[in-house]
């Protein structure tokens, strides 16, 4: 089973969301549904980027890095150069 780190972009606001999950497509559905909490107000969301890892630990470590101050520049570079 693979674990993914993903970056979503809001189509209505200049916002990005970073998360990790086992199933990216199902998770995007949740972000775009009424069940979403924080992401509900910026719907709809589209997948801008994702990476796969063998373990949940690796994915969570990468997610934390991308959410860190050092990771902000990396995140923007990934979105600009590696669009899906």
Give your account of this protein's structure.
This protein has 84 residues and is an alpha+beta fold. The protein has a single domain, classed as GIY-YIG endonuclease (3-Layer(aba) Sandwich). Helix content is 39%, strand content 27%. Strands 2-1-3 form a 3-stranded antiparallel beta sheet, with helices on both faces. A hairpin with a 5-residue loop joins β1 and β2. The radius of gyration is 12 Å and the shape is globular. The model has no long low-confidence stretch (mean pLDDT 89).
* CATH fold-level assignment: GIY-YIG endonuclease
SS summary, helix count: 3
Give the H and E element order. EEHEHH
Class from helix and strand fractions: alpha+beta
Strand order of the largest sheet: 2-1-3
Query: How many strands in all?
Result: 3
Described by strand count, sense and barrel closure, the largest sheet is: 3 strands, antiparallel
Specify the helix fraction band: 25-40%
Strand content: 25-35%
CATH class: Alpha Beta
Integer tally of domains: 1
Overall radius of gyration = 12 Å
Summarize the structure.
This protein has 84 residues and is α+β, with helices and mostly antiparallel strands.
What brief labels describe this structure?
84 residues, alpha+beta, GIY-YIG endonuclease, three-stranded antiparallel β-sheet, 3 helices, 3 strands, 27% strand, globular
């Amino acid at each position: 089973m693979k674990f993914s780190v993903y970056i979503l972009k809001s189509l209505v606001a200049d916002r990005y969301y970073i998360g990790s999950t086992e199933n990216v497509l199902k998770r995007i559905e949740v972000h775009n549904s009424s069940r979403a909490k924080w992401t509900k107000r910026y719907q709809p969301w589209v997948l801008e980027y994702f990476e796969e890892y063998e373990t949940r630990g690796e994915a969570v470590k990468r997610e934390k890095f991308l959410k860190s101050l050092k990771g902000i520049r990396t995140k923007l570079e990934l979105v600009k150069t590696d669009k899906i």
